[in-house]
Amino acid sequence: MTATIRDAARPFSGGALTALLSPAPRLLALGEPTHGVEAFPELRNELFRHLVEHEGYRSIAIESDCLAALVADAYVGDGTGTLDGAMDLGFSHGFGASPANRELLRWMRAYNERRPAPERLRFYGCDAPLEMTGAASPREALTRVHEYLTAARLDLPWSPADLDALLGPDERWTDPCTLMDPARSVGRTPEAGRLRLIADDLGVLLDAHAPDLTEATSPDAFWRASLHARTATGLLRYHAALADAAPGRLGALVSLRDVLMADHLDAVARREARRGPTLVFAHNGHLQRDPSHMEFAGRRLRWWSAGALVSARLGDRYAFAAAAFGSRGADVPGPDTLEGLLSALPHDRCVVDPGRLAAALDRTPPPRVPADHTYAAFDPAATGRTDALVFVREV
């Protein structure tokens, strides 16, 4: 270990991380290399507290269902419901069981109790209503935006009964078997095609009447309606891809998910522009600027991540801090890998300057091959496209 590599690292703190970011971003994305390891959401909580108290941040978005997150946001915003209820209903993908996520909501609620409404923290989900084996019915998203426009006295050519007839039973949409069997999907039926046109028209009506609707209801109500419209369109597009029997359907599905994540993050950045930057927390693979890769069902999938898409839109107002770790039980990185080199640093947790690190290395370290397949090891070749690297020696 040379002194130059040691000089690239600092003990982890929020200030050490933000010192590497210039100019200050609108979205600061902190990745995690695997799900289910509490060390990373705990580190996220520590960073978020610093960002709120010292850097003017007023919101956080995590890799969880954007519609479910409205329940968690209502709790932290004005105390609607209970903490238990927010954990049960406000998260997807099992993230409501995370103690760190529970502590995040508890802290945000306590912070907001002492603040006026314009200064309160907001909680967002940046993922679509998708699970590993399927997608939600578009019923909730479509119904909510239809109800909003009806309450605003717009003359709509479709009734709730029309939507119900086209949607049919939700079980047709949520069947997990559609992931591997496109013939079971209803995403390309005539009814689904009609629903896609309706969803598009509802979104256009929102945009066309935005000034009147915002004044007649509220900016927050209009935001929620736009969220539901965007999600309805994205879900129907995803279900159509589920029904596609073409060889590239699996690649299209993962790509569509990240496109919708990018759209949500873009909308969050625009909503929060006057209040402050937003911290984003998701898997490295969703937030990196490089294409994402995955082996699934015997195929090598490649697609552009949400981070790459948002970075193309926001430029240097998007910053990405990747996370990596050293040892996890018997899974110890080789000494010549990047994780092995960083494990020799004198810090249990550190922030690494990618530019200094790259300058200190006389060669690109070989990629780590972790024993745990759920861990996506950091690609040493991507160092130059990362604004910071957060390293945890042992988890």
UniProtKB/TrEMBL annotation:
Name of the molecule in the record: Erythromycin esterase
Range of residues in the leader sequence: none
Gene3D superfamilies: EreA-like (biosynthetic domain) (3.40.1660.10), EreA-like, domain 2 (3.30.1870.10)
Gene Ontology biological process: response to antibiotic
